Amino acid sequence: MGVALAEGRLARLLGMSFRGAWKKEGMLFVFKKQGRYPFWMWGMRLPIDLVWLKKRTVVGFEENLQPPASRWHLLFPFLLRRYRPPEAVDGVLEVPAGFCRQNRLKRGEVLDAQN
After folding, report:
1. CATH number at residue 59
2. What are 21-44's pLDDT values in tens digits?
3. Alpha-carbon gap, residue 13 to 7, rounded angstroms
4. For 28, which DSSP code?
């Protein structure tokens, strides 16, 4: 699977926000320290799945997260729901909605460059 790496503060803030199509199959966020980093749907135009990773192992996921129905969230992002992993993670993978189901992703599965 080809993924883009979210490097730098701006890339981490935006993720797949404001994009109308997937150029890669996903976006990977890697953190130096494990934590319960929140993700939101600010500026999202595409439905996504979030995969929570600890040392490349799936510890959970959120499926079929839909973009906000209105553009009001752009002015009032504090109203958006924050999605947090079930435990501290060091990586998060944003992928198109349906990825987890299509790939029968399970907790405990190890993702590597071959997956």
Report:
1. 2.60.120.1140
2. 655 578 899 999 999 999 988 888
3. 10
4. E
